Amino acid sequence: MTTTEHVPGRDYEIIGEVFGLTTQSKNVVRNIGAGFKNIVGGEIKAYTELLTEARDIAIDRLRQNAMDMGADAVVMMRFDSDSISADMETVAAYGTAVKFK
């Protein structure tokens, strides 16, 4: 998996787009703690952990999607995220599945 357009020294054919998606939410206790932290400022570690976990799940699902398509690699891998509500985040990992020649 690479965020670049080309894999150095490798020729490949494009198979298609691949995705890994997840939506995550923290529990009520952590949301209350995050609310207190919002008052005084600084990093809200519960949400950093939420996004880290969501990113890792999205990457795993992207890899599985690529393997299911018979890909050897994924190029141009990117992330996108969005808040669905005050306590839910969705993360998408996406890229182009390729097969080495």
From TrEMBL:
Pfam name, any one: YbjQ_1
Residues in the signal sequence: none
Transmembrane feature ranges: none
InterPro entries attached to this UniProt entry: UPF0145_dom_sf, UPF0145_YbjQ-like
Protein family per UniProt: Belongs to the UPF0145 family.
Name assigned to this protein: UPF0145 protein IV57_GL001630
Lineage: Bacteria, Bacillati, Bacillota, Bacilli, Lactobacillales
